[in-house]
Amino acid sequence: MSDKVQRLLGRMRTDLRNVKPSAIRAFDQEVSDIPGIIKLTLGEPDFSTPEHIKNAAIRSIRADHSHYPQSIGTPGLRKAAANFLNQKYNLNYQPDNVIVTVGATEAISVAIGSVVNKGDRIIIPTPIWPMYIPIARMQGAEPIFIDTSADNYVLTPARLKKTLQEYGDSVKAVVLNFPSNPTGITYRREDTRAIAAVLAEYDVFVISDEIYSELTYGEPHVSVAEYLPEQTILINGVSKSHAMTGWRIGVICAPKLIVDNLFKLHQFSVTTATYVAQDAAQEAFENGLNDGQKMRQEYEKRGNYCYDQMKSMGFGVDKPQGAFYLFCELPDWFDEDEASFCHNLAYRNKVAVAAGSPFGPGGANHIRISYASSMTQLHSAMERIRNYLNDRYGN
C-alpha cells in the first residue's frame, strides 16, 4: 500500500473502523470452496421464483421498461404492495404510504438513518439478525440491547417498559423482527398486543421488520402496525414470501408525513430500484397472494425434521414457529466453543452452520441452522453432524 493510500485511509470516517464485515457472510464465503460442503448458513430459499413472476419480468423487458421508474416506486407496485399487506394483515395502507426499496436491507438503513440523530438510542431485542447493529452505529446511534433468551426469545412488556423508563427521551426507536431471524420464534397476537400497549405510551418509532410474515407455522402473522399504525415503520418485501432474494425488492410502509421524510434518504442513496424487478414484484403481490403457502408447508416439514434431529443429538432447541431457522444451544458436554465447532464441522464433516455470537447478547454458545435447503440436503447434513459428534465425543 502506498503512503498516499495509507494517509487517505486515515482520513476516512473514524467510526467505520469499529464496524466489521458480516461474520456470517465471511464464514460462508470462507467455506464455500470446500468440496461437497452443505451450507446451512444463509437465509436463501432453495425454491425458484414462481413462473408467473418470471414471465412478468420478461414482459417488462419486452415493453422496454429499461428507463428510470419513479424514485419512490412504480404506482402499480406501491398499490399492489399496499393491497397485499392490507388483505393479509388487517392493515389500512394506501399507495402514498409505501416506498419501494432495494431489498429489506435498504429499508432498514433508511428507517434507522431517517429517525436517529447522533447520540440517540435504539432498543434492539436480541438475539437478532446482526445487520441492525452496525447500521445503528454507523448512523451515530447507540444500540440498547435487551437479551430475550431467558424469555423464550420474546420481548416482554415488562422488560420493554423498564428499558424505556430507564433511558427516557433518548430512545428514538425500538426494533422488532418477527418471525425472528435467528431464533425461528414469532410473536402471537397476545404478545404483539401487549408490546403495542407499552409502546403506545411513548413517542418512539417502531421499526418492525416482518419480512418472514408469510412463513408462520400455526397461527397467522399479526403485524404490530395493526395496533400502532401511527408509530410503525413497517418493513416487508418479496424476498422470502416469493423466493425473490436476488430481485432485491423491499417495501417500507408508514404514515404519509413520515414517508415523505423517509423518501429523502432513499432517493439520495439509491435513486430507485430497477424497473423490471418492480414489475415482477407487482405481479407477486397482485397475483401471487398465496405463493408462499406451498413453500411455508415445506419449510415447516423441514424445520420439524431438523428440530427432532438436533434435539435427539443433545442440542437445546425450540420448535420453530416461523421463518426457516433453528437456534441451537451447544450441549454442556461439548469441549469446544461455538466458533471452533462451526469451523471443525465445516472442514471435517462438510456442513456449514452460523455461529450465534454475531446475533448479539444471548447468542453465545449457540449455532443457527438455516433449513432453507432441500430435504435431501438436510438429511445428509443431519447425518454428518451426528457423525461428527460420534467421532469426537463417542455419542
From TrEMBL:
The keyword Cell membrane does not apply. It comes from the Bacteria. InterPro entries: Aminotransferase_I/II_large, AspAT/PAT-like, NHTrfase_class1_PyrdxlP-BS, PyrdxlP-dep_Trfase, PyrdxlP-dep_Trfase_major, PyrdxlP-dep_Trfase_small. This is Aminotransferase. PROSITE patterns: AA_TRANSFER_CLASS_1 (PS00105). GO terms for molecular function: pyridoxal phosphate binding; transaminase activity. GO terms for biological process: amino acid metabolic process. CDD domains: AAT_like (cd00609). Pfam families: Aminotran_1_2. Its cofactor is pyridoxal 5'-phosphate. Keywords: Aminotransferase, Pyridoxal phosphate, Transferase. Residues 37-385 form the Aminotransferase class I/classII large domain. Its EC number is 2.6.1.-. It comes from Paucilactobacillus suebicus DSM 5007 = KCTC 3549.
